[in-house]
Amino acid sequence: MGDETSWLLPFIIVMLVGYFALTTWLGKKGKAHSGSMKGFAIAKGKVNPAVVGMSFGASYASANLFLGVPGWAYTYGLSTLWYTIGCFGVTWLGLLLFTKTFWRYGQKNGGSLTIPEWLGNRYNSKALRVLVALLVLFNIYYIVGQNVGLATMFETVIGIPYLWGIGIGVIITIIYVSLGGAFAQIVSDGIQGATMAVVSLLLFISLLWTIGGGWNVFGTLQSELRAIDPALVAPLSAGGPFYSGFAILSIQWLLFSFVLLPHLMNKVLTVEKEEDLRTFTLSAGISLFTLSIFSVFAGLAARVILPGLASADSAIPAYIMEAFPVAIVALLVMGVISAILSTTDSLYLGITNSIGNDLFKVLAVPVLYKNKKLTAQELDAKVLTASKVSLVFIGLVSLYMSVSRPESLALLTSFGTSAIISGIIAPISLGYFWKHANKSGAIASVVSGAGCYMFLTGTGAIEHVFQAMFFSSILGFTSMITVSLLAESLKKREKPSQETVRGW
Questions:
Q1: Fewer CB within 10 Å of terminal CB in the chain, N or C?
Q2: Whole-prediction pTM
Q3: CATH superfamily of 2-503
Q4: pLDDT: is 344 or 385 the higher one?
Q5: DSSP letter, residue 160
Q6: Burial class of 183 by CB neighbour count within 10 A (0 to 12, 13 to 18, 19+)
Q7: CA–CA separation, 273 vs 154, rounded Å?
Q8: What is the spatial distance between Cα 398 and Cα 412, in angstroms, rounded to a whole number?
């Protein structure tokens, strides 16, 4: 790009200022809808369902799909396509299967604002609600992954120091989420999702001039990769996440279950009418396809034209710098930044809502205000304040945890999400259709599933995080079924004895 790079920093600074102005404006606009905990958490009915669907895809995409997964493609080659294809097909299948029933259950008992509250209402258990809220805190690792991705982007493209990049992302996100809550987060994500779709398509089209080959561009790309290393075109990759059929199956299980993550399923609770769910799922599917499939090819192309990068996660930023003129580079950089921030704001909102609505409200309020008779409005105001205060605290914690750069962005983001999925997949899915599901089984599933995952990864018994999640979630299902049946059996035994006592 030569001397043109001197214009890149001013271009991006102008775009960042414009982005900050837009999100601040959305935050102020959303302030009208975030005066209550319900408005702050889900902005129910305030956003068009098509925009909510686009927001779902944008929140799903994250730094993982735009930096981490192309980094895998740079390192392991074509086997990474197992992940990207699953991101659209398998994840969307999960969304289609879970959405309607989840929405219907979410409307009961006055409506649920969070996944922990949804489970607490479904099983009539405050203990379960608190346990799942604590589990949601594992999403801090996902936020750290986004911070690292943003800092890597700034550092690679425009030379902003790593720590400065993290600070910029944390500050921008906290400001507009604290102002406008779910409304600002969903609308800004919808806009970011459209930008990211354009970026994805441009990255894909660029193969025509970076790799060449015309209509045979894929054949040319495959030949170039094979010339570097035949392992790059193999369906499995030794030493990587895709080293066996079972490893790939474990990844597909993760992607199928991914829709259950709190920052994604909360989007379903935002939809006001059941008939709008079709629009939401269609929009989400289009968004998932566009954002999941195309960027990975740029990671493969980067391996051909930019061999020997120090960090695989910098493949996309480096490729953008090599493949496009400076004006387009600035647009693409903002698109990738959008991918990162659109997930970060959802994660912040999901964690802080659980802290306020499920931990502070259930655990702290009965202790702090036990001698006061709070009205519903007063209680709601205190819970909302707790959520907003925790937003700043979580931001500072994520900033501290992001100081040390991880080896793999994709593995870091998968660590926290896998812990959550291991604990909640059985209580949510069995709660839909199994009439014997009860709170004892649900609690046992959360504890055993998440506990097993932490044990397997913490001890190194299973280093592959996806396989650890697979085995842990299976244990969660087994625990829930076993304990639910035992609890039901004990309850039946107690009932006749109580009737005998009454008769005596």
A1: C
A2: 0.81
A3: Sodium/glucose cotransporter (1.20.1730.10)
A4: 385
A5: -
A6: buried
A7: 41
A8: 13
